[in-house]
Each structure stands twice: as structure tokens, then as C-alpha cells.
Amino acid sequence: HLQAHRDVVAIAELEGVVEARSQEGKFLAAADACARAVELRRKVLGDSHPETLTAAERHILQCNFWGVRCLQGHQHPVALELLKRAETATDPANCVPDLRRRAALRATTFNNLGCYFRARGKLNAALQYVEKALRLEERYKEAENPSRTYLNLAVVLSMMGRHDEAIGRNQSAISVLQDQGNLALDACESTQVYLQTVSTLVVAYHNLAVEQLCVHKGEAGTKTLLRAFNLARHKLGTAHPLTTRMNDAL
Predict the structure, then answer these.
(1) How does pLDDT run across 91-101, given as a tens digit for each residue?
(2) Is residue 14 within 8 Å of residue 40, measured between CB atoms?
(3) Tell me, what's the pLDDT at 28?
């Protein structure tokens, strides 16, 4: 009983370290403490305890969140290390066995690694990671954000000069987003969810138009841009920054 009590105290202390290091922007130290807290929970509570599973999931989400933050702040070595830790933690060989959202979390991690390598100009590595994300999502039929993978893929393909393929991926994203938008309306989901979907759809139409113009489909490109503008104007309002951007693009 005494050892169990010590372990509970140690877990609480580690959670405090995670919070403190995160506030200080010392994300690798925060991730270390977070991983140790997961391991202690596995030891004390077992792999299938809800608290263990929640902590394991939180560790993966935090590594992704901090990794993206470091990437945006141009702290590239730290960003890569954090995203690689999330990749390791979602590997079937390493992760908590009953982690229900493992595949979706792994796909999210692969998408973020794709963004990392794209930002570093390593397009082949970026493409490999985003394609891995898509394969996982298609295999397990679960994704945190399915349109994001298609949009990421389209951007990488475009940067590689593969515009026809980028068009196909943008069209896939548009199809998914239209379904999501209809579902959000049907389910009376929060306005925020619906507006976020619409905003992403506007961006997807804009990106599709750019690709169409790259392959000299001027008329189709102009029509797609007009669709992006009308969607933004009707659903987001004339004062929305995206509406202004679409208007400027026309």
C-alpha cells in the first residue's frame, strides 16, 4: 500500500513538472515527464485502465501540439524530436495495447511530420509521411480530420510540380468537406464546427483553382475561384478575411 501511495504521489508530481516545463516552453522536458507519468500509470493501474489510456493519448496529443508549435517557431530540431516521439508512441510495437484511437493519432502524427519535412524543403520525405497517413486512414476508416490529409497531399504534390495529381487530391478534400458540412448541419453541431468546415472548403476550392490554372485550365480555374468567393460571401460574410482574399484572387 505504501508503494502504491508513493507511485500516486510520483504521478501527481510528474504532472506538475509537465505543466511547469510546458509553461516555460521546455517542451522536451515536459514530454519526458509526460512519458514517465504514462509508464508509472501502466505499472500501477495496468494497461487497460481508463486513466492509463487517457494519459497515453494525452502524451501523444501533447507531443504533436508542442511539435507543431516548435515548427511554427522555427525550433526545428525540437519539433522533429517531439513528432518522432509521437510516432514511437503510436507504433503498435510500443504503444499501450488498448489505445482505441491509435490509428487516428498515428495518422495525425504522420500528417504533422509531413508538414515538418515540407517546411524543411524535403518533399520526398513529406510525401512519404502524408501518404502513410492516408493509407492508415483508409485502412482503419478513422481520422481526426480526413480532409486535412488530402489537402496536405495536394500541397506537397503541387510543390513537386505534379499538378494533375494535386487536382485529384483537392477534389477528394472538397468531397469530404461537403459531406462534413452537411453532417454538421444535420447534427445541429456548433456553429463553430460548421464555419470551420466551410472555411477549409473555401481554401480547398482556392487551392484547386490554383492547380487548374497551373495546368492551363483557365476557365475551370476562374469558375472554381468564383465558387470559393460565393461560398465565403454567403456563409462567412463579406467582412471575413477569407472572403476578402477570394475577392482579391478574382
Answers:
(1) 988 888 888 88
(2) yes
(3) 96
The answer for residues whose C-beta is within 8 angstroms of residue 119's C-beta and 6 or more apart is 71, 76
Question: What is the rounded average pLDDT for all residues in the chain?
Answer: 92
Neighbours of 229 (CB within 10 A): 23
Residue 158 CA to residue 163 CA, distance in Å, equals 5
Q: Are 82 and 28 in contact, with CB atoms under 8 Å apart?
A: yes
pTM exceeding the 0.70 threshold for the entire prediction: yes
What residue type is assigned to position 249 of the chain? A
Number of alpha carbons in the 13 Å side-chain half-sphere of residue 33: 18
* pLDDT exceeds cutoff 80 at 112: yes
Q: How many residues does the chain have?
A: 250
Q: What is the pLDDT of residues 19-69, one digit of tens each?
A: 999 999 999 999 999 999 999 999 989 998 999 999 999 999 999 999 999
Mapped onto helix, strand or coil, the DSSP state of residue 194 is helix
SS3 (DSSP) at 22: helix
Concatenating the DSSP letter of every residue in 36-98 gives HHHHHHHHHH-TT-HHHHHHHHHHHHHHHHHHHHHHHTT-HHHHHHHHHHHHHHTSTTTS-TT
